[in-house]
C-alpha cells in the first residue's frame, strides 16, 4: 500500500461539496446521498484521501441519481492523508493505524446499519485502499455485488474467497495492481460458475484514474466516466 502511485495527485478535500449530508451512520461520520427510503444501497469505500474528496462525492451523487441510497463513510476518523510533503508525516505509521482489517470491521457495522433501516440489497465499490477492504467483504454474502477499482495489493487467496458478483476495473499503468495480475484474477474468477465476474483494463490511464482525474482534462474525464458507467451497470444488474 505504500506504493507512490497511491499517493499521487491528492485531491483538495471539501467538507461542503455534494448534494448529500454528513451524518453519523454505523458509528462513522458518513456522507449520505439519495433517497432515504430506497431499499437498495451502495457503499463507497474511499482511497487514502478519504470521504471528502470532491470527485468521490460527485460520483456518489451520480449513483444516487439512479435510485440508490449511497453512503460514503469516513473510515479514517477525520484523519485522511492530506499532505505527503509534511516532514512529520509517516505513511507506514498511518497505514498501521488505518489498516484494512479495521476498515473491514467498520464496513460490516455500516452494512448492519443499512440492514436495520430496511435496506434489502447492498452493493459496494472500493478504490485503492478501499478495494483491499472490499475484497475481504466480498468473501461473505453480506453484499449483493462488489466493484473494485484500481485496488491496492490483493492476493490470489482473497480472490479465491470471493462469493458475490464482482467487477474489477484496472488501469494500464499501475504498479500496485498491474494489468497482468488483474487478468489472472479474472481467469481465477471465471472458473467459478456460481456467480458472475468481470475484469476490464482501461488503456492509457494510471492508478487512481476513476476518482483522481483532472476535471479539466477531457480525456481523463471520459475514461473516469466510462468506469463509472461500468460500475453503475454492475450495480443495476445485481443490486435489486
From TrEMBL:
Q: Domain Dienelactone hydrolase: where?
A: 29-238
InterPro entries of this UniProt entry?
AB_hydrolase_fold (IPR029058), Dienelactn_hydro (IPR002925)
The signal peptide annotation in the UniProt record is: none
Pfam families given in the database record: DLH
Molecular function (GO) terms listed?
A: hydrolase activity
PANTHER family tied to this protein:
DIENELACTONE HYDROLASE (PTHR17630), ENDO-1,3-1,4-BETA-D-GLUCANASE-LIKE PROTEIN (PTHR17630:SF52)
Entry protein name:
Dienelactone hydrolase domain-containing protein
Source organism: Castanea mollissima (Chinese chestnut)
